Amino acid sequence: MSTAQLDLTTDPTQRQHNEAPARGGKYLTFRLDDVEYGLEILKVREINGLTGITAVPRMPEYITGVINLRGKVIPVIDLRLKFGMIRGEHTEQTCVIVVDVGQDVGIMVDTVSEVLDIADGAIEPAPAMGATVDTSFILGMGKINEQVKILLDIERVVDVAELRQIADHVDPGAPART
pTM (2 decimals)? Predict the structure, then answer.
């Protein structure tokens, strides 16, 4: 082992502070516009086509509605809108990735790409964008060949507490959005 890899700190709490968490592993990659994203495969329950979404009145624009998945009602978030992008045109490749973030939630994406095994050494921290830009939802930047994939912390992207708070304030008599 080279000296560059040794941590000679004697205080174990300080040593833990110096070590970055391991982020290598398998990631499901998908596209929004021309940008490729990835999320930890262990968070993915399944991938479904874009069918059977029921609009729910008075939801934020990024919440497309809900789907019935084997008797369980699951909210669906349009990730393009959640990220402040323009609404995309739905194609036969548009799909809903059901993720486990303490509860099942669907995220609508333009297309699913592939599952990649990304080594820990190929993942860099998110670049500093200044104090006004929140990048806390980014696990890191995966470097694959000459491409960069934005690896998401899906639990920070999909805030379950926020979804519950929204659900508590829904007026069932309100007209549906179009």
Answer: 0.78
Query: How does pLDDT run along the chain (178 residues), one tens digit per residue?
Result: 433 343 444 444 443 444 456 788 999 999 999 999 999 999 999 999 988 899 988 888 999 999 999 899 999 999 999 999 999 899 999 999 999 998 999 999 999 999 999 999 999 998 776 665 667 889 999 999 889 999 999 999 988 777 776 666 554 444 444 3
Q: What is the DSSP string of 82-148?
A: HTTPPPPPP-TT-EEEEEESSSEEEEEESEEEEEEEE-GGGEEPPPP--TTS--TTEEEEEEETTEE
Contacts of 103 (CB under 8 A, 6+ apart): 160, 163
Q: Give the span between the Cα atoms of 103 and 27, in whole angstroms.
A: 20
Structural domain boundaries in the chain: 24-127+146-168
Q: Which option is the CATH number for 24-127+146-168: 3.40.366.10, 2.40.50.180, 1.10.238.10, 2.40.37.20?
A: 2.40.50.180
Q: Which helix (H) or strand (E) holds 15?
A: helix 12-18
